[in-house]
Each structure stands twice: as C-alpha cells, then as structure tokens.
Design goal:
Layout: E1 5-9, E2 14-19, E3 28-29, H1 31-46, E4 52-57, E5 65-66, H2 68-76, H3 81-100, E6 105-109, E7 113-114, H4 116-123, E8 126-130, E9 136-138, H5 152-160, H6 162-171, E10 174-176, H7 177-183, E11 188-190, H8 195-204, H9 230-247, H10 252-264, H11 269-285, H12 287-304, E12 320-324, H13 328-339, E13 343-347, H14 351-370, H15 376-384, E14 386-389, E15 400-403, H16 409-420, E16 428-431, H17 438-442, E17 451-456, E18 465-470, H18 476-488, E19 492-497, H19 504-520, H20 525-535, H21 541-548, H22 550-564, H23 574-584, E20 596-598, E21 604-606, H24 610-613, H25 625-645, H26 652-662, H27 672-679, H28 681-694, H29 704-711
Parallel strand pairs: 2-4, 3-5, 4-6, 6-8, 7-9, 8-11, 12-13, 12-15, 13-14, 15-16, 16-17, 18-19
Antiparallel strand pairs: 1-2, 9-10, 17-18, 20-21
Amino acid sequence: MIDYFKYAVDSDGICTLTIDQPDSNANVMDQNFIDSLQSNLDRALADASVKGMILTSAKSSFVAGADLKSLEESLINPPEAQELYEKCWAFSGLLRRMETAGKPVVAALNGAALGGGFEISLACHHRVAVDSPKMMVGLPEVGVGLLPGAGGTQRYLRKLGVAKALPLLLQGRQLKAAKALELGLLDQLTNADDLLATAKAWLMSDAATAEQPWDTKGYKIPGGNSPMMPELAQLFMGTAANLQANTYYNMPAPQAITSCLYEGMQLPMDKALQIECKYFVQLNLDPVAGNMVRTAFINKTKADNLIRRPQGVDKCKHIKIGVLGAGLMGAGIAFSAAKAGMEVVLIDRDQEAADKGKDYTQTRLAKALGRGRTTQEKMDATLARITPTTDYSLLSDVSLVVEAVFEDRGVKAEVFALAEAAMPQDAVLATNTSALPVTGLAQTTSRPNNMVGLHFFSPVEHMPLVEVIRGEQTSDQTLAHALDFVAQLFKTPILVNDSRGFFTSRFFGAFLNEGVTMVAEGINPALIENAARHLGYPVGPLSISDEVGLDLAYKGAEQARADLGADFKEGSSVPIITRLVTEHERHGRKNGKGFYQYNDDGSKKLWSELASIWPQLPKDQQPTEAELQARMLHAQLADAATCLAENILVDPADGDVGGCFGVGFPLYMGGPFAAMDTKGIANVVAECDRLAQTYDAERFAIPQMLRDMIKNNQTFYGSNPVVTSA
C-alpha cells in the first residue's frame, strides 16, 4: 500500500493527518486512499499519547472526489451487489468508527470539500475552513445519478433536519463557506495561515468533544424525527409530487435520497447508515447512474482536461482576442472572455452596434452586482477589458479572433479579409458558424491552416459546451490553441471533423425535424410537446423551434439549397416551417408568433390556428405517447450513429458530452451512444428498421456499422468497444 497520509504528533498530543497523494495534483478517493485512512486512523487511536486529531490536506483542495480510473473500471466490469455493498459499508463504517472511537477529530479544510471529501468532514467532530471565495462544500452526487454513500444523507439529516437537508441533497448544492457556516455544516472560518492553529485551538479547548450530537442521549433531529408529523408528512408528499413533475421518475437518485431521509429519520444512526448503503448500491447498479457518471463526470472531465488536444504543441495562454460581430453571440463570447481575464476587441460595422455589444456585459454584470455575486471593482475591471470599435487595426496583437456574424458566406468572407489584414500571421481565426462547413469558409481566407470552427451555444455565458470543428486544412497548432482558448473560458470542448451541421446542429435538428413533422401529420401539438418532456427533454420540439427562430431555420434551409443545388435534400419539416414563415410571418418567440402565441406578460399557448392549417387526427386515432417518443429518440440515435460511422465524430464520448451539455439530450440516458448501449444495439437497430418502414426510410436509416456491431457483439463502451478512427 502507498500511504497517502503524512502522520505527525506534536508535544501536546495533537496528531495531524495530512492527505498528500504522491505524484498527483489532487487527492482522489480510491481503495488506496481508504486503506491509508484506515491504517493511519488505527495508528492514532492506538497511540495513547494522541489526544486529538486534525485531518487536513497538502493539496489545493481537500479531496477531489472519486478516482476516474477506478470509476471507469467499475463501469466496464461492474461488481456484484454484495461486493459493492461491502465496499460501501467498509468506508461508511470506517467513518462511523472515527466519530465514535473516543478521540476528537477536526477537519481543517484548506480547499474545496465535495462529495466523499465532505462526507469525511461531516464525520469529524468539528470543521474549520479557510474563508475564501474558492472554498466550496457540499454533496453534489445527485448530479451524476447517485447519492452520498458514506453517511452524507444521514449526517445532513441529523444536523439540519428534513426541511433543510432535503433540498440541498436533491439539488446537489455546493455551498460557499459563509452559507455552510450559517447552516452549521461548518463550525469556524479562518485565514489560510491560521487554519491548523485554529483547529488545534479547538482540540485544546474545553469545547472539544469526541461525541457527535446525534450520539448523545435524547438528541432529536431538528424539525422532528417522525414522518407522520403533519408538516413533515406534507413536505414528503409535496416532494414526491415535485419529483414527478420535474423528472417524470426518469432519474431514480432523487427518489432514493428522499427514501434515505424518510427511513433514516426513524432509525438509530448505525441502522440508518446501512439503509443509505442499500440505496447507494441500488443506484450504482442502475444504468442511469452508470450513464450519468460516465458522461457527466468521466468523459466531461477528460474533455475539460483537453484529451483531444494535439500532442507536441506548446500551450498558448490567450491575453488578447478579437470578436467580429457584436450581436447576441459575439457579445456573449466577449463577455465570457473578458470575465475570464482576457482583453477583447469587439468589432462591428458601426460604433453604435459595437457599443451595444459591450452593453450586454454591462447589463449582466449589473444584475450580478445587485444579487451580490460580484463586486463593483470586478465589474469595472471586466468592462475595462472590452474595447468596442470598428477599427480592425486593433487586432494587430491578438492571438485569436472569433467571427460571430450572420450565417452568410459573403458577410463572413468580408470580415475574414479585414481581420486577416490586421492580425498576426500565427493567430487563430475561428468561426462561430453553427452549420456551414469550416473547410469551405477557409477557402475564402489567405491562411486556411489557421481556420477552425468554435461553435458556441446561446446564451454563451451560461452554456458549458463548445463544439470545436477541425477543417481539412486546420493545423495541429491552430486546433491546440483553439482548445486552449476554450479551456481559459472554463468551458467543455468536444472535437468533431468538418461537415455540414457538424454534430450538434444536425443531431439536434433530427429531434426538431421529427417533432415538427408530426404537426403536418395531424398529431396534437400538445401531445408532441408533452411526449418529449416526459421522455426527459427539457422542452418540446415546437417550443425550442420557436426559441431558435423559425426564420433562422428557414434561412438555413435556403442557404443549404443554394450551396448544394441538385444535391440538396429537403428535410420533412422544411415545408411546415416555410409555410409558417412565408405565409403567416411567424418567426418564433422573437416576434411573438411561432408554433406558440406569446403574450406581453411572458405567457404562451399553442397557436390555435395550427389545426386549421394542418387538421388534427380524431382523438381515437392519435398515436400513443410512447410511439412519439420512439420516433424523436431514434431519429437522433440513427443520426448520431451515422456521424460516428462517417468520422464526423471522432469518439462516442464527444457525442454523449455534446448531446447532453450542448443540445439538451436527456442526461439520465448519458447521451445517444450510452443510450444505445443501455437499450442494446440489436434493439435499437430493430426499432429504427420498424420506424423506417412505418414512416420514412431516410430519417431512421442506420449505418452498416451498427449491424456489424451486433455480429461482433460490440458496444460503444465496455470490454469490447467498437473501434473508431480519429
């Protein structure tokens, strides 16, 4: 065993256990970590000279969370339920032993403590943390389909009561130090230099105790310990209703967390911890948790760490960038870059438009200031980094330029030429196009090897994903430096090869196309919208079509028609959108008229005249919700598989991360490729074949790759994954 802890006892009998995992920038929780904690705890408890313990970290954070390699291995070779329970109880029982062994323990938190790291802290008798904006604590496991399995639910319950603990756990909230102190999840805040001294002072004081409040005789959970109490019964009933309304029971973790509190509050601590372990095992064996862990944690972390970055290229720290176009997208990119510390030259055709782009940052920062989320000093500094202008010569010392003008080849070529005349020879020229092939756009430039696609999503400052598109001539250096830029923005990049629509736009379009097509078939629009939401999409296809803009979809189709000529294949939704735009001037939310009618107070309802244009089928002939869900889902699955087979996607992980974090594919499925593995490739192929015969052969066409995977007993993930080419 490699010891992850440094053990030291001072003359006052205070033992400091410092977590310092060798050859790592962070402490991660693997079996070696648990074994190290147990051996050092055994040593301290057996040492009669030790009067109390301080548990701290030598890294910038306390404990970073689970080990990625161990998690990935457990997904490929999942353990049996009994084995998993024994592992869970071994760790939970170890923490329980620490809090009941008779020696006081203080957690001295020098950095963030989340998940299992905070569960360790909760099992200590006192928690001291550095008073820093970066200090965050919490139990965010629900975000990856799990629950805290080392006592987190039960210690939250006993410290806070059901009414406060339940929303924190169900939302996976990460708390700043001051809020955690207010709730009683932290006991003291101090500066970094005094952290260990403050922890020791408590151990040496009369207040030091080796007994948790819930282990004292007569202790009662705040707010009551019986779910039959009227206010608690009402809370649990309301929670059940909210879970149904918000998750449609697609995600089992919130229900399991609620059950942990409901059952745990009626039981002694040791039994309650075993109940927690039981639910932890259930969730771990559920494919929902596996899919969410793989996509939202493992693959997203790899993407954040720039796994697709070309090797051998020096890292570029972007100090100053340019943004061409100060509209919604350009203004959002400028805001995000300035907030990340970069200087931004924001260019538009006239000064008024450029100034308006900077005002976007002003407005958003003013809201943040009013809510106490920033300071006037930080706001002023961010605004000072944005220079709105019409002068392209200010690009003379930038390292990267992002074009964010209209989806018009002519307009883009014009601004490319102006930018290239001013910017350095080795600077990256990026286009924010959402559909136009990067290779074709690069042909209008003098240095196509410097061109790359950076497809942002709106609103830029809130959306975590950037789709990075490699053109045929994009150099390794250009790609690497573009990825460095995305990392500086604290966003998640996925890498795709060039094509019309790339991955996210065409994948998203498959969902929208199928939903909109149903309207012309006489299917009730409300049924279409509800079927999508019940399956787990955040909004229905008609709503999102309005949000994106029906006029933009129409113009995009016309641009593709002009580009492709005789090769253009009109999507089944194009005639519907064309009719709404050209005959009824319904452009979507932007003009208050789309599939929905929008009111001044922000409310909306489906446009009543839709049934006049496309008469609805009689009620008894309307399809089932399950059939509509199958159509929308499998249209996307077929498209995702085609993207991988055609080498547009370089890896299934990019498709899963991009689908979930870019265009709202249900996270509980883990993305299209995780979903296909879960459903079974053979079942997906059979369903796509059925839908192709019933509705449209092209929309549900699947690549030969899927049929070959069935023959070879392959999956996208696991012990026998399909081999893809980068």
